[in-house]
Amino acid sequence: MESFESILNHLKAVKKKQGYTNAYLAEKSGIPVSIINKIFSSIIKNPKINTVIAISNALNVDITSPNIENKLNLLHNLANSYNLSNDDIEFLNRYLILSEKNRHQFYLLLGILNNFNNDSN
């Protein structure tokens, strides 16, 4: 889980450098401010992957390393932490190669699907 901690520490540093408040970051990412507060105060140590992606996108941070070997190592470490299958890893690999615009559109679609799923329950 060490690599996941390093991602969160990096996001904290970028947030501080950019001067964003938790409220602004919550608005920009679509993540509730209560969750943002808990993540950045280390109450939540293992947030959901989609939450980390939303925060990183809001901060304009690529949470993957610039070199492909580190990207794959990071992805596999996260996958192992969350017990993801090979299909899940492939899905994440495909997500990571999307352009920023397409990632954003995909994220919006996930939000719509999540709301639809919540409304069905």
Describe it:
The protein has seven helices and no strands. The protein has helices spanning about 1-20, 20-30, 35-40, 50-60, 70-80, 85-95, 100-120. By secondary structure, it is mostly helical. Helix content is about 75%, strand content about 0%. The termini are far apart. The mean pLDDT is about 80.
Structural class computed from helices and strand pairing: mainly alpha
- CA-CA gap between termini: 33 Å
Radius of gyration: 14 Å
Number of strands: 0
Please work out how many helical segments DSSP would assign: 7
Helicity, as a percent range = over 70%
- State the shape: globular
The mean pLDDT is 81
Element-level helix/strand string = HHHHHHH
Please indicate the percent range of residues in DSSP E strands (runs of 2 or more): under 5%
Taking the sheet with the most strands, its summary is: none
- Low-pLDDT stretches are none
Summary tags:
121 residues; mainly alpha; 74% helix; 0% strand; globular
Secondary structure elements and their pairing?
Layout: H1 2-18, H2 22-29, H3 33-40, H4 49-58, H5 68-81, H6 86-96, H7 100-120
Brief summary:
74% of the residues lie in helices and 0% in strands.
